[in-house]
Amino acid sequence: MDSETYAYLEIPAFKVQQPLGDFFIIKISAEDLLSISFSEPMEYKDEFGNVKGSQRPKDEKRLKEIARYIDSVEMAFPNSIIIAANYTQNGVVTNDDSERWYVIEDKDCGIHRLIIPKKAKLAAVIDGQHRLTAFEYVTNSERYSQLQLIVSVYFDLPNSYQAFLFATINSNQKRVDRSLALEQFGYNVGEEPEIAWTPEKLAVFLSRKLNIDKENNSPFYKHIRIAPMKGENLFVDGVGNSWVVSTSTIVDGILLLLSANPKRDRIDMQQKSVFSGRKREMISKTKDFSPLRIFFLAGKDQVIYDTVLNYFKAVDTRLWQKANQKSYIFRTVGIQASFDILKIILKTENKKDPDKIDFNKYFGSINIDFSDKFFQASGIGRSRIKNALALSLGLNSVNKIKKTDIPFYTDLLANNNTKGQIEKWPWEEAAEVVVINALEKAQWNYQSKTVNLYLNSDYAITNVIKSYDRLLTVLNEIAEREFVENLPIDNEFSPQQQADFDSEDLVNSLLEDYDDNLKRLGWR
Questions:
Q1: What value does the mean pLDDT of the chain take?
Q2: CA 203: distance to chain centroid?
Q3: Burial class (CB in 10 A: 0-12, 13-18, 19+), 9
Q4: Res 217 pLDDT > 90
Q5: CA 196 to chain centre
Q6: What distance in Å separates the CA atoms of residue 448 and residue 429, rounded to the nearest whole number?
Q7: Which comes out higher in pLDDT, residue 299 or 372?
Q8: Checking phi first, is residue 244 left (phi over 0); if not, alpha (psi -120 to 50) or beta?
Q9: Is the pTM of this model over 0.85?
Q10: Distance (Å, rounded) from C-alpha 351 to C-alpha 180?
Q11: Are 498 and 487 in contact (CB under 8 A)?
Q12: For the chain, what percent of residues have pLDDT higher than 90?
């Protein structure tokens, strides 16, 4: 090949042999990789269902978030980007020798040299599209031109195999357990100055403290499941053998009190190194009305810990010690609902000394059987436990509850079981769950007066809501869609069920939990 006619790259490569096919491992700058590669969203080519491409559509918001991470001092991409070489953007493998990539083997040392003509973009990105494309949004130009990426290169891999490989990678790789990820994320908190801790790191630290604080009679002592191997070594007298909840449940509960968007806070704080300027005050100008945030920003971690500790001591005395082993109150949904109630109480009290609140006064007359079949171990169970507690504690009124649920709560508050009530239909519960999940994942943007709704499970597609009416419309649409999709096929029964379903009542009742958010947006 005439190197003077066509510029080219020459890169050392290691050959890897696996069942699907051989591939090569290289390191290359983001700038060079972008200059020789392309990616395309999967789409239908014709009416017969044939497709091209292997990627999901690009999400500009996500790209900008990744770019901020790339600009941070702790940026790391240890996983490889996967590409298919010699594949044109028209959907075929090129046979033009002047532009094809090829490999020269050095038999003496087992190292190969990958020769890449720069005449045309002939590398289709199979996996890692957003990581790579995000470099186009970075502000630090050195990251773009000098930072090296690990790349796995397949040769002459047809489009159908690219899509297969992409699907295999993203479906066969199990998600990392959140508790393990959080434990690993916060493993070195003791080595960092406390003022540099992000909300996540503080939440991990406090969850650990709640788990081992025997001296202060923590009700969570030996009840928080830790993810790392040999976690039982944490307790010299052995682990607890009664109820347990995950680390992530406690961390998420604490974060609920500190931040409306922990990921945003972490990335903003990571713009500076731990030991050269990172401080909590870096996020002090971000609008966030979480009830204990001012104490986090001020470094008053003991106040936060004592508030959580005192509250759950009251929960333990008034609820846990009276509950039977089948109760949902100390299951994951019960702990989540209890944190929801703590958030409501803190906003109601609005005190400068939240650690001095007498939480026992709220729990004086509760007598609810949380093992009742009305409660369940799911998102809807969390909502029902929270509603039952809020009604009993006088923190909510019955007219804000979904009309079809009022008879259930009436029985529960009268210390009766709900067996006499008609069972809720599964399609009704499915509609409720989908709205609950959408609202729990929502991002409330007070500066721009918008709400980001993630309406799919992998958080890849964002629906930006700019008005209250639009929010109601979208939530009603997903509720009705889920309701219909779960209805049985019955020409006589199903139409009546659909006619009786009141999606507006469902949505309005669930939005009551977000009344404060809506007011801050100016939508109520």
A1: 81
A2: 16
A3: middle
A4: yes
A5: 23
A6: 33
A7: 299
A8: beta
A9: no
A10: 35
A11: yes
A12: 30
Q: For 81, list phi and psi in degrees, rounded to 5.
A: -85, 140
> To 5 degrees, how large is the angle CA 342–CA 344–CA 348?
115
* Predicted local distance difference test score (pLDDT) of residue 280: 95
Q: Which contiguous run of DSSP H or E holds residue 18?
A: none
Angle at 443 between CA 74 and CA 174, to 5 degrees: 60
Number of Cβ atoms within 10 Å of the Cβ of 355: 18
Residue 47 banded pLDDT, cuts 50, 70, 90:
very low
Contact present, 9 and 118 (Cβ < 8 Å):
yes
- Report the alpha-carbon distance of residue 286 to residue 268 in Å, rounded: 10
Q: What is the three-class DSSP state of 489?
A: coil
**Can you give the residue ranges of every domain in the chain?**
8-172, 425-524
Where residue 239 falls (left for φ over 0; alpha for ψ -120 to 50; beta otherwise) is beta
Query: For residue 438, is pLDDT > 90?
Result: no
Say what the pLDDT of residue 339 is. 96
Task: Give the pLDDT confidence of 175-214 residue by residue, as tens digits.
Answer: 455 665 565 555 556 667 899 999 998 998 899 899 888 8
Section 212-236 average pLDDT: 73
- In angstroms, the CA 382 to CA 253 distance is 12
Which pLDDT score is estimated for 4?
46
Element (H, E) at 344: helix 332-349
- If you count them, how many residues does the chain have? 524
In terms of phi and psi (left: phi > 0; alpha: psi -120 to 50; beta: otherwise), the region of 488 is beta
Which sign does the torsion angle of CA 203, 261, 438, 40 carry? negative
For residues 134 and 63, the answer to whether their CB atoms sit within 8 Å is yes
490: left (phi over 0), alpha (psi -120 to 50) or beta: beta
In angstroms, rounded to a whole number, what is the distance separating the alpha carbons of residues 485 and 481?
6
Q: What is the mean pLDDT of residues 306-315?
A: 96
Give ∠ CA 23-177-453 in degrees, rounded to 5.
95
Tokens of 359: 């939480």
DSSP sequence for 42-66: -EE-STT--EE--BPPP-HHHHHHH
User: Between residues 437 and 309, which one has the greater pLDDT?
Assistant: 309
How distant, in Å, are the alpha carbons of 154, 157, 162, 164, 464 from that of 20?
Answer: 10, 10, 11, 11, 40
